[in-house]
Amino acid sequence: MKHLTPADLAAVEAAVRDAESRTTGEIYCVVTEESSHYGETAIAWAAGVALLGPALLLLAGIEVTIPDPFATWSASDVGAAIGSAVRRALIGAIVTQGVLFVVTALIASIPPVRRFLTPRSLKRLRVQRRAAEQFTAKNLHLTRERTGVLIYVSLGERMAELIADEGIADHVDPHIWDKAMAALTEGLRRGDAEAGFLGAVKLCGEVLAEKFPAREGDNPDELPDAVVVLPKP
After folding, report:
1. Which of 88, 110, 138, 191 pairs with 153 at a CA distance of 20 to 30 A?
2. Do 172 and 223 sit in the same domain of this protein?
3. What is the pLDDT averaged over residues 58-72?
4. Whole-angstrom Cα distance, residue 113 to residue 104?
5. Comparing C-alpha atoms, which of 164, 165, 175, 177 is closest to residue 207?
């Protein structure tokens, strides 16, 4: 997924400004490289692979042998030999598990690998959560008529969220945003976040202009039009 260039950001800002000129609603765009660090993914995979250590030793043919009972060994010799063999097996298992844990954790920490190994449901949950945090943090719930719309894009996960404030929700069927979300997700699927943003802004502007048309002389720009670029968490 390519990052948004300054030209891309300027194009989206211009689209927001144009859309808001026809409505009292506010469109606020946020983009981030990733919505979470997903550190637990590397730990979970490392622990799971490390648990395979003893099984790998067995597959490799490692086993604990018991001395021949007919050999001229005393009981203490047999006990000592068994204890030594068991200790070697346990040490081998511990070392193998430790190596597997470290190697897997390092590999799973590589960003593209980590994203691939992270369940889609977890990524969706984190994207939704950070979008909701941004809606509140950027005061979209404090516009005069509660007509703010957040368009949130997370590039690493190729996921997006659209959140409309309650002033809009009371007058607009939730499914009316499906086309805007489809434009967003299609742009992300093709690796073109700019096109996704532009399509979503245009469609949101059309909905807001129909339900909340601009009033001449009374249409303040309550929120910045520029796209907010968030750092990685």
Report:
1. 110
2. yes
3. 57
4. 11
5. 177
Contact assessment for residue 227 and residue 29, using Cβ atoms and an 8 Å cutoff: yes
Edge-first strand listing for the sheet containing 159-164: 159-164, 148-154, 26-32, 228-230
Name the 3-class secondary structure at 30.
Answer: strand
Do residues 108 and 41 lie in contact, with contact meaning Cβ atoms separated by under 8 Å?
Answer: yes
Q: What's the pLDDT score for residue 62?
A: 58
Residue finishing a domain among 72, 98, 116: 116
- Quick check: 221 and 4 in contact, CB under 8 A? no
3-state secondary structure of 57: helix
Residue 66 has pLDDT above 60, yes or no: no
What pLDDT, on a 0 to 100 scale, did the predictor assign at position 108?
92
* Same domain flag for 178 and 105: no
Q: In terms of domains, do 188 and 226 share one? A: yes
Domain total for the chain? 2
Distances (CA, A) of 105 to 56, 120, 170, 207: 18, 20, 48, 47
Give the predicted TM-score (pTM) of the model.
Answer: 0.81
Distance CA 104, CA 50 (A): 8
Which amino acid does the sequence have at 199?
G
The domain of 172 spans: 6-36+119-230
Q: What is the pLDDT of residue 51?
A: 83
